[in-house]
């Protein structure tokens, strides 16, 4: 098919040309005396994206899923109790991982389309007078349902009850796109992945640990080897890694961090909100609904859109891909066939989002979903023009 594929999924995201060029590097000696000149500033600048001055950043040649395991296995011990609210596929998978690692998981069910209920969390923590809960696992942006939870509100609930649990946050599809404040929110481990807001290929797990989380490493007895942060602590202090790193990821990360910091993080967040709002205007004009049940849950990185009863969202996705060369995200698990997803994160602008809306609109019409042709595109155009 002529023309490029339009990648409109919530990850992996589009890679800027300048980042792709930065990754085309010859291999080099990662033990050379020059290598720390790349690594040490990289780790420091990564902390700026996490918004921490007190924490320590880590880069693993892995994935966001590995980031979950790094957080758990480096701070906890088998049998430790953790609290997680399950309200989508990725919170579900993190819960499953914790169980398989031998942790005692208290899983609280939440309707898919809602986020972490702060009042309920405060009640649970307040009742845990012996502080048996050792960690809270919070999914900041649940990609499967397009729901963003209030991490600052979680910290307030913890402080209100005087609870001592560690706070782990999955920020894989939020960090670098949606405001994230590790120090201000008292996050103990923040987890990100290379293929979302950092605008890189998959293959990098980026994390930041608070001093409290680093201290917990001394008492953790979960088995760990390749994912042991102590090996990184020992090597990173001199600007090296404990094993061979992915040079293309490191050089690409250098350029992506430069782009984010040059744009300014607050401007990055405002851009994502504005682009997401244009997509939401289109969805409203189509007469369709988001999976996210209230505006307070709306994600600025992905919109999960419900198809009307009697239709299969997979048909829309298939038509969009085969007929119009546009990739939309599929519904997962409980929402499979019920939703399709438009990712609006990373390297994109107004016209990028308009292409996604136009391709989606044609696929909806082709599947006999009753919308007014041009309604979504028109609504988004007016919003983008008036807010440019």
What does this structure look like?
By secondary structure, this protein is α/β, with parallel strands linked by helices. It has 2 domains: 6-12 and 264-387, Alpha-Beta Complex (Aspartate Aminotransferase, domain 1); 17-262, 3-Layer(aba) Sandwich (Aspartate Aminotransferase, domain 2), CATH 3.40.640. Helices cover 41% and strands 16% of the residues. The protein has helices spanning 17-23, 36-50, 64-73, 89-100, 118-127, 151-161, 211-216, 229-236, 247-263, 265-286, 313-324, 350-366, 375-387; strands at 6-8, 56-60, 81-86, 104-109, 133-139, 141-142, 147-148, 166-170, 189-193, 205-209, 289-290, 302-306, 326-330, 339-343. It has a 7-stranded mixed β-sheet with strand order 2-10-9-8-5-3-4, with helices on both faces. A 5-stranded mixed β-sheet has the order 1-13-14-12-11, with helices on both faces. Strand 6 (141-142) and strand 7 form a beta hairpin. It is globular. The mean pLDDT is 97.
- N-to-C series of helices and strands: EHHEHEHEHEEEHEEEHHHHEEHEEHH
Q: For the record, give the distance between the C-alpha atoms at the N and C termini, rounded to a whole number.
A: 33 Å
Q: Identify the CATH class of the largest domain.
A: Alpha Beta
Low-confidence stretches: none
Assign the CATH topology of the largest domain.
Aspartate Aminotransferase, domain 2
Number of domains: 2
| Shape, principal axes of CA atoms | globular
Q: Tell how many strands the DSSP assignment holds.
A: 14
Largest sheet, strands/sense/barrel = 7 strands, mixed
Question: Helix segment count?
Answer: 13
From the alpha carbons, calculate the radius of gyration and give it in angstroms: 21 Å
Beta-strand content bin: 15-25%
**Major sheet: arrangement of strands:** 2-10-9-8-5-3-4
Mean pLDDT score: 97
CATH architecture descriptor of the largest domain: 3-Layer(aba) Sandwich
């Amino acid at each position: 098919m002529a023309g490029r594929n339009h990648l409109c999924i919530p990850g992996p995201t589009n890679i800027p040309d300048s980042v792709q060029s930065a990754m085309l590097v010859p291999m080099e000696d990662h033990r050379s005396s020059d290598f720390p000149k790349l690594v040490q500033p990289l780790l420091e600048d990564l902390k700026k994206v996490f918004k921490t001055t007190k924490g320590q950043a880590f880069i693993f040649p892995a994935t966001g899923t590995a980031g979950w395991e790094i957080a758990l296995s480096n701070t906890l011990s088998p049998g430790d109790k953790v609290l997680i609210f399950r309200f989508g596929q990725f919170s579900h998978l993190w819960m499953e991982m914790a169980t398989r690692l031998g942790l005692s998981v208290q899983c609280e069910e939440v309707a898919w389309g809602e986020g972490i209920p702060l009042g309920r969390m405060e009640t649970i923590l307040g009742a845990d007078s012996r502080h048996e809960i050792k960690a809270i696992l919070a999914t900041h942006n649940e990609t499967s349902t397009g729901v963003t939870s209030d991490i600052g509100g979680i910290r307030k609930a913890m402080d209100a009850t005087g609870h001592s649990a560690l706070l782990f946050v999955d920020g894989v599809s939020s960090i670098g796109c949606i405001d994230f404040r590790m120090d201000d929110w008292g996050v103990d481990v923040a987890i990100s992945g290379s293929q979302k807001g950092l605008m890189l290929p998959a293959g990098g797990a980026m994390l930041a640990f608070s001093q409290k989380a680093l201290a917990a490493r001394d008492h953790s007895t979960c088995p760990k080897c390749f994912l042991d942060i102590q090996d990184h602590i020992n090597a990173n202090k001199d600007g090296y890694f404990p094993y061979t790193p992915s040079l293309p990821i490191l050089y690409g990360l250098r350029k992506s961090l430069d782009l984010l910091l040059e744009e300014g993080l607050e401007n990055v967040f405002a851009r994502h909100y504005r682009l997401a709002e244009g997509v939401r205007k289109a969805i409203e004009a189509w007469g369709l609904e988001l999976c996210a049940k209230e505006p307070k849950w709306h994600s600025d990185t992905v919109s999960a859109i419900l198809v009307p009863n009697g239709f299969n969202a997979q048909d829309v996705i298939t038509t969009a891909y085969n007929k119009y060369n546009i990739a939309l995200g599929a519904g997962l698990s409980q929402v499979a066939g019920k939703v399709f997803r438009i990712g609006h994160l990373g390297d994109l602008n107004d016209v990028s989002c308009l292409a996604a809306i136009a391709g989606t609109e044609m696929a909806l019409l082709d599947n006999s979903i009753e919308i007014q042709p041009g309604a979504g595109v028109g609504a988004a155009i007016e919003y983008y023009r008036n807010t440019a």
